[in-house]
Model the fold of this input.
Amino acid sequence: MPPVRTRFAPSPTGYMHIGGMRTALFNWLWARHNGGQFILRIDDTDRQRNINEAVGPILRAFRWLELDWDEGVEVGGPHGPYFQSQRGEFYEKAAQRLVDDGRAYHCFSTPEEIAADRAAAEAEKRPYVHLRRSLELSDAQREQYRAEGRPCVLRFLIPRDRTVVIDDLIRGRVEFDSNLISDPVIMRADQSPLYNFATVVDDAHAEISHVIRAEEHLSNTPVQLLIHEALGHTPPQFAHVPFVAAPGTKEKLSKRKLEKYRNNPQFKRLFDRGDEILPKIGLGGSDGLDPVMVEYYERMGYLPAAMINALARLGWSLDDKTEIMSRQTIVDNFTLDRVIKAPAGLDPDKLQSYQVHWMGELSVAEKVNACLPYLTAAEYVADPPGEDVQEFVGRLVTALDDRIKVFSDILDYDEFFVADEDLQYDEKAYQKRITKPDDAVELLTKFQSTLETVEPFDAASLESALKQFVEDQETKIGRIIHALRIAVTGKPAGPGMFDCLELLGRERCLSRIAQTLKRV
RNA sequence: GGCCCCAUCGUCUAAUCCGGUUAGGACACCGGGUUUUCAUCCCGGCAAUAGGGGUUCAAAUCCCCUUGGGGUCACCA
Done:
């Protein structure tokens, strides 16, 4: 058995698509599961843009999720270079071999000619395949065309009357009739290779054992198989994974349909949350980072463990009940035969539930370290944060407990960072808890002296002090505690009341209550 | 349109390959409990084999058709 070698070969688009990430993950998992190698190559045969700018976000996504690669971009390896744009000689050599063997031919057909042929075929309702007019040319004509400088591409000669069989590891046996396959262009006039050709040359050169890719490539596969064959390669095994669909649909998740997704109920929450959070940390809104991109989740403060867990469960399962899986568990158990054939819609709700689980596994120190950058970026605290700030955030995070679902949630608790006079009140809650009850103001007023004297000013003492107060006043805890929360935090929800008081400290609590009472 | 792929709760899926389960789990949702709020957590509930034909003692599972969805038909990847 040859070693398992898989690859992911994105075209440099400037961002990492969540669906592509899932494909990459499956490749990585299959390599790791088998103790093989994973290769990261860049398919940039058709790009003239700034490569570094376009590749950066892709590498960033891999690093964030800790998907390491054994060969490829930046790390190098024995099968480089790992940019198709730098592999010209390999393609030229392979192309020459095909020409020499009569498996490829120079084609002088103009785009107009081809369009006309296609139109004619359509008019007659017969499937169009390239007509190979250039094969009929005499040597003299050929020379004349060349002398005229007429552009000439190289086409692969598809053998006729063949049934091309793909034994796909996920989809099973799939057959194609070679008579229906048009001769594909494999080299442009300028000697640059086309994808279907370059990928074959590169996969063979890198000794890729398994090509795991999205199912939209399934119909390219017969061509690639035939080219492998013509070049004398043993083709890799293919596994076509279903595409990742938009939430609640069966349609391929696509960046082009972004505006439509804004109205998708599940996606809408992600967009809205992005619009709320991202500007605070200087990243613009969801115009720049959207939930189709991996970077959105990174910037919002999702956990790699949650992302991996969610992505792995999209089209794959371990058994009939296991949902929560560590990276290691997934590596240990991942097999291609358990990949499902039907497309799977990304489920933001389910991602969130994995996130809640994996967040719960973190220590306070880990959460603090991850939350601090949000607080500094939003300028809630100084950058770099002093020791006292770190200590305070530690106490806040402890009090917040699992209320922080993604790290950027820490920004919801601005009441612990703003000056007393800048405290914002939730008006609805203010009405309900302070204005409307007839005893709220009176109780708050009286409770000030309790706060002044309670010693020490910590959650436990505050709790017993409040209970004593309630007893003395012959009232119920519910009569004051809600009003108190609004008075000191401005909000109807948050950490435990006594934690809030302790966190804020005596002075700020008293100042905020006074300010609230003045407001009535 | 041609070719190809796919089809189980609202969603992600298990059982399908090798026919026999009260068709299981999770998320979401609904109800209840815990809790000073919110969040968490616990308990319970709702909810599916696209349709039609075969084959068989027995079909979600095998075969055919229909319908629906999707992918692809480039000098994109």
Remarks:
- The first strand of chain A starts at residue 5 and ends at 8.
- The mean pLDDT of chain A is 93.
